[in-house]
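In response to the reviewer comment on reproducibility (Comment 2.3), we provide here a single inverse folding case reported in full, input and output, so that an independent group could reproduce the run without further information from us. The structure tokens appear first.
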């Protein structure tokens, strides 16, 4: 196994975590209706549910928070935040939001009409749901290699450019109010998108007069992968790579809970001031005035500082190698690890790891529950529980392209020995996978069912 790049920080504040017994976990999971989203966090030993908002902030971020200017309009903290976004991402205009999905809701609510289409390499669950809620259609056009968990290629998050252009011609550009690309591609195993692919995606959208927005949550990790995997960028700084990535886009939606290394926050970055003013009307109704958008001044301070820490090459080197190490540990335990490892998470192909459980019985969720019972480790299914649904015309179930289980790593939170522990739990579990049973849904809400669904062992 490769030794990860050392943590480029030391620990100043600690948060105790508590181990439960197996018998306790069996009971806890039962009362959570077999849905790990309903398990109290204090009953989780290692929480790899998400990397979103679970980050450890730095001493500089915490001290910046003391400088928070809580003025309703034109706060100093907003100006600092606006300057950081303009400097790092290159967007002259920014609207803060309380998190990424609010940025999506404001942007789509302004641009997208019922019956229209929004292409993406692969939509994240919240962008998909925000578009569906309007009565429009989210369309996924990722390269086919993304669905093959075994092949090791550098940029499996890429947009399938031929399918994108064919799709635009098929439905007509007038029915596509905006196009997106997600970097890194969270729903496709956190795989990066190449610089050439971002540029060409932008060129295709612009050829048809379609505004191009980047779902930017993990832009710094994407830039790091470009630097590592594309020789033309090996000598460029992360800052330069980031600026080039965004130079091809008209704007972005961002969840600061990811690569801005904070606990809450988001924004819309824009070039067009007129569009900013249109979105601002919605923002003021739903989020707040345009210089705070649902955040406190101190949150804007933390984001402004965190954006710089997120593009630090030592941090990114540690981040990537730490994640890769967990991939190696899980593979050694016998799990079918998606190749290559993404930036923020390790994805295990649960369909391959538990071949005896069909997609209709959610192998990813079954594996997640088994891991929790075995060692108090919480992960999340990214498969047919999250993305499956019944076809609105035929009523037939539609399954996700892969049954993945995501081990997401909070930024700067867990050490290598925590990852070794997760590997030990996985190894123990893999000794007897036949005893892991599938799950069935006993209740589900209409949208984003995985968060609240209730399940039972088959
Ligand atoms: C997390 C995420 C979002 C939504 O952001 P929130 O801050 O959770 O609302 C959107 N897109 C991607 C790719 C994400 O990972």
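Designed residues, in position order:
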């Amino acid at each position: 196994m490769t030794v990860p790049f050392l943590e480029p920080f030391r620990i100043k504040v600690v948060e105790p975590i508590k181990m439960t017994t197996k018998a306790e976990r069996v009971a806890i999971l039962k009362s959570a209706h077999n849905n790990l989203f309903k398990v109290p966090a204090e009953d989780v030993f290692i929480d790899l549910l998400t990397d979103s908002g679970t980050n450890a902030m730095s001493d500089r971020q915490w001290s910046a928070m003391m400088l928070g200017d809580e003025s309703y309009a034109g706060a100093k903290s907003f100006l600092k935040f606006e300057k950081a976004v303009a400097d790092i991402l290159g967007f002259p205009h920014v609207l803060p939001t309380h998190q990424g999905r609010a940025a999506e809701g404001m942007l789509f609510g302004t641009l997208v009409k019922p019956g229209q289409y929004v292409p993406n390499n692969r939509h994240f669950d919240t962008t998909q749901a925000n578009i569906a809620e309007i009565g429009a259609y989210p369309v996924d056009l990722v390269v086919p290699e993304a669905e093959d968990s075994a092949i090791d290629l550098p940029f499996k998050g890429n947009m399938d450019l031929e399918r994108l252009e064919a799709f635009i011609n098929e439905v007509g550009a007038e029915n596509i109010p905006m196009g997106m690309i997600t970097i890194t591609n969270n729903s496709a195993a956190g795989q990066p998108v190449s610089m050439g692919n971002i540029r060409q995606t932008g060129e295709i959208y612009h050829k048809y007069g379609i505004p191009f927005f980047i779902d930017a949550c993990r832009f710094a990790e994407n830039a790091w992968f470009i630097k590592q995997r594309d020789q033309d960028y090996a000598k460029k700084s992360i800052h330069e790579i980031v600026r080039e990535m965004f130079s091809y886009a008209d704007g972005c939606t961002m969840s600061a809970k990811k690569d801005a290394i904070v606990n809450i926050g988001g924004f819309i970055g824009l070039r067009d001031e007129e569009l900013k003013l249109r979105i601002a009307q919605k923002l003021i109704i739903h989020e707040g005035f345009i210089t705070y958008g649902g955040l406190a001044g101190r949150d804007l301070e933390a984001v402004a500082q965190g954006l710089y820490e997120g593009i630090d090459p030592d941090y990114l080197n540690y981040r990537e190698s730490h994640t890769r190490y967990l991939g190696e540990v899980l593979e050694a335990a016998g799990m079918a690890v998606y190749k290559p490892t993404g930036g923020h998470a390790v994805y295990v192909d649960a369909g391959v790891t538990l071949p005896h459980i069909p997609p209709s019985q959610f192998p990813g969720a079954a594996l997640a529950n088994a891991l929790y019972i075995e060692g108090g480790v919480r992960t999340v299914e990214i498969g047919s529980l999250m993305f499956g649904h019944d076809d609105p015309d035929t009523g037939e179930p539609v399954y996700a392209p892969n049954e993945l289980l995501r081990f997401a790593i909070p930024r700067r939170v867990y050490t290598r020995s925590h990852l070794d522990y997760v590997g030990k739990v996985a190894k123990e579990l893999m000794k007897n996978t036949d005893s892991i049973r599938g799950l069935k849904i006993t209740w589900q809400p209409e949208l984003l069912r995985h968060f609240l669904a209730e399940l039972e062992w088959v």
